[in-house]
Amino acid sequence: MDVMEKNKQIIEKLKIGTKRIYISFKWVVFAIITGAIVGGVALLFHKGLSYVTQLRGQHPWLLFLLPIGGLIIVGIYRFRKVEKDLGTNLVINAIHSEQDGVPWDMAPLIFVSTIITHLFGGSAGREGAALQVGGSLGSTLGKLFRFDSKDQHIMIMCGMSAAFSALFGTPMAAAIFSMEMISVGIMHYVAFVPCVISSLVAHSLAEYFHVRNELFPVEAIPDFNFQNALIFSCLAVLCAFLSILFCVTLHETEKLYKRLIKNPYLRVIAGGCIIILLTLIVGEQRYNGTGINIIEQCINGTVRPEDFILKIIFTALTLGAGYKGGEIVPSFFTGAAFGCLFGNIFNVSPTLCTAIGMVSLFCGVTNCPITSLLISFELFGYDGMPYFLLAVALSYMFSGYFGLYRSQKIVYSKYKSSYINRKTR
Hints:
By secondary structure, the protein is mainly alpha-helical. The protein is 70% helix and 3% strand. It has helices at 2-58, 66-79, 88-96, 106-119, 127-144, 149-168, 171-180, 192-208, 226-260, 264-282, 292-299, 307-321, 328-346, 350-366, 369-380, 385-398, and strands at 183-184, 409-412, 419-423. Strands 1-2-3 form a three-stranded mixed beta sheet, with no helix packed on it. Strand 2 (409-412) and strand 3 form a beta hairpin. The chain is globular, with a radius of gyration of 22 Å. The mean pLDDT is 90.
Protein backbone atom coordinates (compact mmCIF):
# COMPACT_ATOMS: atom_id res chain seq x y z
CA MET A 1 0.00 0.00 0.00
CA ASP A 2 2.87 2.37 0.79
CA VAL A 3 4.38 1.76 -2.65
CA MET A 4 1.04 2.34 -4.37
CA GLU A 5 0.48 5.52 -2.38
CA LYS A 6 3.92 6.82 -3.29
CA ASN A 7 3.30 6.02 -6.95
CA LYS A 8 0.00 7.94 -6.82
CA GLN A 9 1.76 10.91 -5.29
CA ILE A 10 4.48 10.79 -7.96
CA ILE A 11 1.86 10.60 -10.72
CA GLU A 12 -0.07 13.49 -9.18
CA LYS A 13 3.08 15.61 -8.97
CA LEU A 14 3.88 14.78 -12.60
CA LYS A 15 0.38 15.86 -13.62
CA ILE A 16 0.74 19.14 -11.73
CA GLY A 17 4.18 19.74 -13.23
CA THR A 18 2.93 18.96 -16.73
CA LYS A 19 -0.02 21.32 -16.28
CA ARG A 20 2.26 24.12 -15.11
CA ILE A 21 4.56 23.61 -18.10
CA TYR A 22 1.54 23.68 -20.41
CA ILE A 23 0.22 26.89 -18.84
CA SER A 24 3.64 28.54 -19.01
CA PHE A 25 4.08 27.53 -22.64
CA LYS A 26 0.55 28.74 -23.42
CA TRP A 27 1.22 32.20 -22.01
CA VAL A 28 4.55 32.52 -23.83
CA VAL A 29 2.84 31.74 -27.14
CA PHE A 30 -0.16 33.99 -26.62
CA ALA A 31 1.98 36.81 -25.25
CA ILE A 32 4.05 36.72 -28.45
CA ILE A 33 0.87 36.75 -30.55
CA THR A 34 -0.60 39.62 -28.53
CA GLY A 35 2.62 41.62 -28.64
CA ALA A 36 2.86 41.22 -32.42
CA ILE A 37 -0.79 42.08 -33.19
CA VAL A 38 -1.22 44.90 -30.68
CA GLY A 39 2.26 46.23 -31.41
CA GLY A 40 1.42 46.35 -35.12
CA VAL A 41 -1.80 48.26 -34.52
CA ALA A 42 0.00 50.62 -32.11
CA LEU A 43 2.60 51.35 -34.81
CA LEU A 44 -0.18 52.25 -37.26
CA PHE A 45 -1.61 54.47 -34.54
CA HIS A 46 1.80 56.12 -34.06
CA LYS A 47 2.23 56.66 -37.81
CA GLY A 48 -1.28 58.10 -38.07
CA LEU A 49 -0.73 60.54 -35.20
CA SER A 50 2.64 61.62 -36.57
CA TYR A 51 1.13 62.22 -40.01
CA VAL A 52 -1.84 64.30 -38.83
CA THR A 53 0.38 66.29 -36.45
CA GLN A 54 2.72 67.12 -39.30
CA LEU A 55 -0.26 67.94 -41.52
CA ARG A 56 -1.70 70.35 -38.94
CA GLY A 57 1.71 71.98 -38.61
CA GLN A 58 1.74 72.61 -42.36
CA HIS A 59 -1.90 73.78 -42.40
CA PRO A 60 -2.66 75.61 -39.11
CA TRP A 61 -6.13 76.54 -40.42
CA LEU A 62 -7.24 72.96 -39.68
CA LEU A 63 -7.72 74.13 -36.09
CA PHE A 64 -10.88 75.96 -37.17
CA LEU A 65 -12.43 72.61 -38.13
CA LEU A 66 -12.07 71.27 -34.58
CA PRO A 67 -15.82 71.58 -33.79
CA ILE A 68 -16.63 69.60 -36.97
CA GLY A 69 -14.14 66.94 -35.89
CA GLY A 70 -15.87 66.84 -32.52
CA LEU A 71 -19.23 66.26 -34.18
CA ILE A 72 -17.74 63.33 -36.12
CA ILE A 73 -16.37 61.82 -32.90
CA VAL A 74 -19.66 62.09 -31.05
CA GLY A 75 -21.47 60.79 -34.13
CA ILE A 76 -19.40 57.61 -34.48
CA TYR A 77 -19.73 56.84 -30.78
CA ARG A 78 -23.48 57.35 -31.00
CA PHE A 79 -23.60 55.20 -34.14
CA ARG A 80 -21.96 52.38 -32.17
CA LYS A 81 -24.46 53.08 -29.36
CA VAL A 82 -21.73 53.99 -26.89
CA GLU A 83 -23.74 56.53 -24.92
CA LYS A 84 -21.40 56.66 -21.93
CA ASP A 85 -17.76 56.26 -22.85
CA LEU A 86 -15.68 55.41 -19.78
CA GLY A 87 -12.40 55.26 -21.69
CA THR A 88 -9.51 53.72 -19.77
CA ASN A 89 -11.81 53.33 -16.76
CA LEU A 90 -13.76 50.73 -18.72
CA VAL A 91 -10.57 48.71 -19.26
CA ILE A 92 -9.78 48.88 -15.54
CA ASN A 93 -13.34 47.89 -14.61
CA ALA A 94 -13.10 44.87 -16.91
CA ILE A 95 -10.09 43.58 -14.98
CA HIS A 96 -11.64 44.26 -11.58
CA SER A 97 -14.93 42.53 -12.35
CA GLU A 98 -16.10 39.28 -13.85
CA GLN A 99 -17.75 40.98 -16.83
CA ASP A 100 -17.12 39.96 -20.42
CA GLY A 101 -13.96 41.92 -21.02
CA VAL A 102 -13.67 45.05 -23.13
CA PRO A 103 -15.86 45.62 -26.23
CA TRP A 104 -14.05 44.84 -29.48
CA ASP A 105 -15.10 48.11 -31.10
CA MET A 106 -13.39 50.20 -28.44
CA ALA A 107 -10.09 49.85 -30.33
CA PRO A 108 -11.25 51.29 -33.69
CA LEU A 109 -13.37 53.94 -31.96
CA ILE A 110 -10.55 55.38 -29.86
CA PHE A 111 -8.08 54.92 -32.74
CA VAL A 112 -10.11 57.01 -35.19
CA SER A 113 -11.36 59.58 -32.69
CA THR A 114 -7.87 60.28 -31.29
CA ILE A 115 -6.54 60.77 -34.83
CA ILE A 116 -9.37 63.25 -35.47
CA THR A 117 -8.68 65.11 -32.22
CA HIS A 118 -5.00 65.55 -33.08
CA LEU A 119 -5.67 66.44 -36.71
CA PHE A 120 -7.79 69.42 -35.74
CA GLY A 121 -5.71 70.62 -32.80
CA GLY A 122 -7.25 69.19 -29.67
CA SER A 123 -4.92 69.09 -26.68
CA ALA A 124 -4.50 65.43 -25.74
CA GLY A 125 -1.97 62.66 -25.45
CA ARG A 126 -1.67 59.25 -27.03
CA GLU A 127 -0.60 56.68 -24.42
CA GLY A 128 -3.96 56.75 -22.62
CA ALA A 129 -5.66 56.04 -25.93
CA ALA A 130 -3.11 53.29 -26.58
CA LEU A 131 -4.08 51.62 -23.30
CA GLN A 132 -7.67 51.47 -24.52
CA VAL A 133 -6.62 50.12 -27.92
CA GLY A 134 -4.37 47.49 -26.32
CA GLY A 135 -6.93 46.52 -23.69
CA SER A 136 -9.66 46.13 -26.28
CA LEU A 137 -7.52 44.06 -28.65
CA GLY A 138 -6.19 41.91 -25.80
CA SER A 139 -9.72 41.23 -24.58
CA THR A 140 -10.88 40.41 -28.11
CA LEU A 141 -8.02 37.93 -28.57
CA GLY A 142 -8.91 36.34 -25.22
CA LYS A 143 -12.50 35.84 -26.35
CA LEU A 144 -11.36 34.54 -29.73
CA PHE A 145 -9.22 31.87 -28.04
CA ARG A 146 -12.09 31.06 -25.65
CA PHE A 147 -10.20 31.99 -22.47
CA ASP A 148 -12.12 32.17 -19.22
CA SER A 149 -12.71 35.56 -17.57
CA LYS A 150 -9.56 35.41 -15.42
CA ASP A 151 -7.31 34.60 -18.37
CA GLN A 152 -9.03 37.34 -20.37
CA HIS A 153 -7.94 39.79 -17.67
CA ILE A 154 -4.34 38.74 -18.28
CA MET A 155 -4.83 39.20 -22.01
CA ILE A 156 -6.14 42.72 -21.39
CA MET A 157 -3.03 43.58 -19.39
CA CYS A 158 -0.84 42.00 -22.12
CA GLY A 159 -2.48 44.20 -24.72
CA MET A 160 -2.04 47.33 -22.60
CA SER A 161 1.66 46.59 -22.08
CA ALA A 162 2.24 45.94 -25.77
CA ALA A 163 0.51 49.14 -26.90
CA PHE A 164 2.30 51.31 -24.34
CA SER A 165 5.67 49.78 -25.19
CA ALA A 166 5.32 50.17 -28.96
CA LEU A 167 4.07 53.72 -28.71
CA PHE A 168 6.30 55.17 -26.00
CA GLY A 169 9.39 53.01 -26.30
CA THR A 170 9.78 52.08 -22.62
CA PRO A 171 9.39 48.28 -22.51
CA MET A 172 10.35 47.87 -18.84
CA ALA A 173 7.85 50.45 -17.64
CA ALA A 174 5.19 49.20 -20.07
CA ALA A 175 5.47 45.64 -18.75
CA ILE A 176 4.91 46.79 -15.17
CA PHE A 177 2.42 49.61 -15.75
CA SER A 178 -0.59 47.49 -16.65
CA MET A 179 -0.04 45.29 -13.59
CA GLU A 180 0.55 48.17 -11.19
CA MET A 181 -2.10 50.69 -12.25
CA ILE A 182 -5.13 48.45 -11.76
CA SER A 183 -4.93 48.09 -7.98
CA VAL A 184 -2.61 50.40 -6.04
CA GLY A 185 -0.83 48.55 -3.25
CA ILE A 186 -0.71 45.15 -4.92
CA MET A 187 0.80 43.79 -8.12
CA HIS A 188 -0.89 41.32 -10.47
CA TYR A 189 2.15 39.08 -10.74
CA VAL A 190 0.20 36.36 -12.52
CA ALA A 191 0.46 38.57 -15.60
CA PHE A 192 4.18 39.28 -15.16
CA VAL A 193 5.63 36.90 -17.76
CA PRO A 194 2.93 37.54 -20.41
CA CYS A 195 3.20 41.31 -19.98
CA VAL A 196 7.00 41.24 -20.18
CA ILE A 197 7.00 39.14 -23.35
CA SER A 198 4.25 41.11 -25.09
CA SER A 199 5.99 44.38 -24.18
CA LEU A 200 9.34 43.22 -25.54
CA VAL A 201 7.79 41.83 -28.73
CA ALA A 202 5.95 45.10 -29.39
CA HIS A 203 9.09 47.12 -28.66
CA SER A 204 11.16 44.96 -31.02
CA LEU A 205 8.53 45.45 -33.70
CA ALA A 206 8.73 49.22 -33.24
CA GLU A 207 12.52 49.13 -33.52
CA TYR A 208 12.33 46.96 -36.64
CA PHE A 209 10.18 49.59 -38.35
CA HIS A 210 12.51 52.38 -37.13
CA VAL A 211 9.97 54.10 -34.92
CA ARG A 212 11.91 56.78 -33.05
CA ASN A 213 11.44 56.57 -29.30
CA GLU A 214 11.46 59.68 -27.15
CA LEU A 215 14.71 59.73 -25.17
CA PHE A 216 15.83 62.73 -23.14
CA PRO A 217 19.43 62.27 -21.95
CA VAL A 218 20.19 64.21 -18.77
CA GLU A 219 23.78 65.32 -18.49
CA ALA A 220 25.81 67.01 -15.75
CA ILE A 221 23.98 65.42 -12.80
CA PRO A 222 24.87 67.34 -9.60
CA ASP A 223 26.34 65.41 -6.68
CA PHE A 224 23.80 63.77 -4.42
CA ASN A 225 24.20 65.55 -1.10
CA PHE A 226 21.90 66.86 1.62
CA GLN A 227 21.40 70.30 0.07
CA ASN A 228 20.59 69.00 -3.41
CA ALA A 229 18.40 66.25 -2.00
CA LEU A 230 16.41 68.85 -0.08
CA ILE A 231 15.96 71.08 -3.14
CA PHE A 232 14.78 68.27 -5.40
CA SER A 233 12.57 66.89 -2.63
CA CYS A 234 10.77 70.24 -2.54
CA LEU A 235 10.26 69.99 -6.30
CA ALA A 236 8.84 66.46 -5.98
CA VAL A 237 6.40 67.52 -3.24
CA LEU A 238 5.25 70.51 -5.29
CA CYS A 239 4.75 68.20 -8.28
CA ALA A 240 2.65 65.91 -6.10
CA PHE A 241 0.36 68.82 -5.27
CA LEU A 242 0.35 69.82 -8.93
CA SER A 243 -0.71 66.28 -9.86
CA ILE A 244 -3.74 66.70 -7.60
CA LEU A 245 -4.58 69.96 -9.40
CA PHE A 246 -4.14 68.18 -12.74
CA CYS A 247 -6.54 65.35 -11.86
CA VAL A 248 -9.13 67.57 -10.17
CA THR A 249 -9.12 70.03 -13.09
CA LEU A 250 -9.70 67.25 -15.63
CA HIS A 251 -12.50 65.64 -13.60
CA GLU A 252 -14.27 68.85 -12.60
CA THR A 253 -14.08 70.35 -16.10
CA GLU A 254 -15.83 67.29 -17.50
CA LYS A 255 -18.52 67.57 -14.80
CA LEU A 256 -18.98 71.27 -15.51
CA TYR A 257 -19.37 70.68 -19.25
CA LYS A 258 -22.03 68.02 -18.64
CA ARG A 259 -23.88 70.13 -16.10
CA LEU A 260 -24.00 73.24 -18.29
CA ILE A 261 -24.48 71.56 -21.69
CA LYS A 262 -26.55 68.37 -21.65
CA ASN A 263 -26.42 67.66 -25.38
CA PRO A 264 -23.10 65.96 -26.32
CA TYR A 265 -23.11 67.48 -29.82
CA LEU A 266 -23.48 71.01 -28.48
CA ARG A 267 -20.93 70.23 -25.76
CA VAL A 268 -18.23 69.17 -28.20
CA ILE A 269 -18.91 72.19 -30.43
CA ALA A 270 -18.62 74.52 -27.44
CA GLY A 271 -15.38 72.86 -26.34
CA GLY A 272 -13.92 73.14 -29.83
CA CYS A 273 -14.80 76.82 -30.07
CA ILE A 274 -13.21 77.50 -26.66
CA ILE A 275 -9.97 75.77 -27.74
CA ILE A 276 -9.92 77.81 -30.96
CA LEU A 277 -10.46 81.05 -29.02
CA LEU A 278 -7.76 80.27 -26.46
CA THR A 279 -5.32 79.29 -29.21
CA LEU A 280 -5.92 82.62 -30.96
CA ILE A 281 -5.34 84.44 -27.68
CA VAL A 282 -2.07 82.55 -27.11
CA GLY A 283 -1.06 83.31 -30.68
CA GLU A 284 0.32 79.88 -31.57
CA GLN A 285 -0.57 76.20 -31.30
CA ARG A 286 1.88 75.62 -28.46
CA TYR A 287 -0.60 73.74 -26.26
CA ASN A 288 -2.44 71.83 -28.98
CA GLY A 289 -1.63 68.19 -29.68
CA THR A 290 0.74 66.26 -27.43
CA GLY A 291 3.40 68.93 -26.94
CA ILE A 292 6.40 66.59 -27.20
CA ASN A 293 8.36 69.41 -28.86
CA ILE A 294 7.81 71.62 -25.79
CA ILE A 295 9.10 68.85 -23.52
CA GLU A 296 12.28 68.81 -25.61
CA GLN A 297 12.60 72.57 -25.12
CA CYS A 298 12.22 72.13 -21.36
CA ILE A 299 15.00 69.54 -21.35
CA ASN A 300 17.18 72.23 -22.92
CA GLY A 301 16.20 74.67 -20.17
CA THR A 302 13.72 76.79 -22.15
CA VAL A 303 10.22 77.30 -20.77
CA ARG A 304 7.53 79.94 -20.39
CA PRO A 305 6.22 80.55 -16.86
CA GLU A 306 2.62 79.90 -17.93
CA ASP A 307 3.31 76.68 -19.88
CA PHE A 308 2.43 74.18 -17.16
CA ILE A 309 -0.90 75.74 -16.17
CA LEU A 310 -2.04 76.45 -19.74
CA LYS A 311 -1.39 72.84 -20.77
CA ILE A 312 -3.63 71.66 -17.92
CA ILE A 313 -6.37 74.07 -19.03
CA PHE A 314 -6.15 73.14 -22.72
CA THR A 315 -6.17 69.40 -21.97
CA ALA A 316 -9.08 69.63 -19.52
CA LEU A 317 -11.16 71.70 -21.95
CA THR A 318 -10.41 69.27 -24.79
CA LEU A 319 -11.07 65.96 -23.06
CA GLY A 320 -13.91 67.25 -20.91
CA ALA A 321 -15.83 68.35 -24.00
CA GLY A 322 -15.78 64.87 -25.49
CA TYR A 323 -12.68 64.81 -27.66
CA LYS A 324 -10.52 61.71 -27.35
CA GLY A 325 -6.91 61.06 -26.49
CA GLY A 326 -4.67 60.32 -23.56
CA GLU A 327 -3.73 62.19 -20.42
CA ILE A 328 -0.23 60.81 -19.89
CA VAL A 329 1.80 62.94 -22.31
CA PRO A 330 -0.02 66.11 -21.14
CA SER A 331 0.99 65.14 -17.60
CA PHE A 332 4.60 64.78 -18.82
CA PHE A 333 4.32 68.19 -20.49
CA THR A 334 2.97 69.78 -17.30
CA GLY A 335 5.63 68.19 -15.10
CA ALA A 336 8.43 69.07 -17.51
CA ALA A 337 7.33 72.71 -17.78
CA PHE A 338 6.91 73.10 -14.02
CA GLY A 339 10.23 71.36 -13.30
CA CYS A 340 12.12 73.50 -15.81
CA LEU A 341 10.54 76.65 -14.37
CA PHE A 342 11.56 75.56 -10.86
CA GLY A 343 15.13 74.94 -12.02
CA ASN A 344 15.38 78.32 -13.74
CA ILE A 345 13.96 80.18 -10.74
CA PHE A 346 16.29 78.55 -8.22
CA ASN A 347 19.22 78.18 -10.64
CA VAL A 348 19.41 74.42 -10.18
CA SER A 349 19.99 72.18 -13.23
CA PRO A 350 16.82 72.90 -15.28
CA THR A 351 17.41 69.69 -17.24
CA LEU A 352 17.37 67.46 -14.16
CA CYS A 353 14.46 69.45 -12.72
CA THR A 354 12.55 68.83 -15.94
CA ALA A 355 13.16 65.10 -15.69
CA ILE A 356 12.17 64.99 -12.02
CA GLY A 357 9.08 67.08 -12.75
CA MET A 358 7.99 64.63 -15.45
CA VAL A 359 8.34 61.44 -13.41
CA SER A 360 7.00 63.03 -10.21
CA LEU A 361 3.83 64.28 -11.89
CA PHE A 362 3.37 60.99 -13.72
CA CYS A 363 3.66 59.12 -10.43
CA GLY A 364 1.19 61.48 -8.78
CA VAL A 365 -1.51 61.12 -11.43
CA THR A 366 -1.14 57.36 -11.96
CA ASN A 367 -0.17 56.20 -8.42
CA CYS A 368 2.43 53.91 -9.99
CA PRO A 369 5.83 54.43 -8.30
CA ILE A 370 7.61 51.40 -9.76
CA THR A 371 6.53 52.27 -13.30
CA SER A 372 7.57 55.88 -12.73
CA LEU A 373 11.02 54.84 -11.60
CA LEU A 374 11.48 52.55 -14.59
CA ILE A 375 10.33 55.31 -16.95
CA SER A 376 12.91 57.65 -15.45
CA PHE A 377 15.66 55.10 -16.15
CA GLU A 378 14.51 54.41 -19.71
CA LEU A 379 13.97 58.07 -20.66
CA PHE A 380 16.77 59.79 -18.76
CA GLY A 381 19.37 57.14 -17.94
CA TYR A 382 20.57 55.79 -14.59
CA ASP A 383 22.95 58.55 -13.51
CA GLY A 384 20.22 60.49 -11.72
CA MET A 385 18.93 57.39 -9.90
CA PRO A 386 19.09 58.76 -6.32
CA TYR A 387 17.11 61.86 -7.30
CA PHE A 388 14.53 59.88 -9.29
CA LEU A 389 14.08 57.38 -6.48
CA LEU A 390 13.57 60.09 -3.87
CA ALA A 391 11.24 62.15 -6.09
CA VAL A 392 9.02 59.21 -7.00
CA ALA A 393 8.71 58.12 -3.37
CA LEU A 394 7.73 61.59 -2.17
CA SER A 395 5.32 62.20 -5.03
CA TYR A 396 3.59 58.89 -4.38
CA MET A 397 3.08 59.75 -0.72
CA PHE A 398 2.06 63.40 -1.04
CA SER A 399 -0.30 62.95 -4.01
CA GLY A 400 -2.87 61.31 -1.76
CA TYR A 401 -5.74 59.30 -3.17
CA PHE A 402 -6.25 61.30 -6.34
CA GLY A 403 -5.75 59.83 -9.79
CA LEU A 404 -6.50 60.11 -13.50
CA TYR A 405 -8.60 56.96 -13.53
CA ARG A 406 -11.53 56.83 -11.15
CA SER A 407 -11.88 53.07 -11.53
CA GLN A 408 -8.38 52.61 -10.15
CA LYS A 409 -8.52 51.12 -6.67
CA ILE A 410 -6.30 51.99 -3.74
CA VAL A 411 -6.19 48.55 -2.15
CA TYR A 412 -3.76 49.37 0.66
CA SER A 413 -3.29 52.74 2.32
CA LYS A 414 -0.31 54.90 1.38
CA TYR A 415 0.13 55.99 4.98
CA LYS A 416 -0.27 52.91 7.13
CA SER A 417 -0.41 49.16 6.77
CA SER A 418 -4.16 48.78 6.33
CA TYR A 419 -6.57 47.49 3.73
CA ILE A 420 -8.85 50.28 2.47
CA ASN A 421 -9.98 49.17 -1.03
CA ARG A 422 -11.23 52.58 -2.20
CA LYS A 423 -11.34 54.22 -5.60
CA THR A 424 -9.26 57.25 -6.46
CA ARG A 425 -10.79 60.71 -6.50
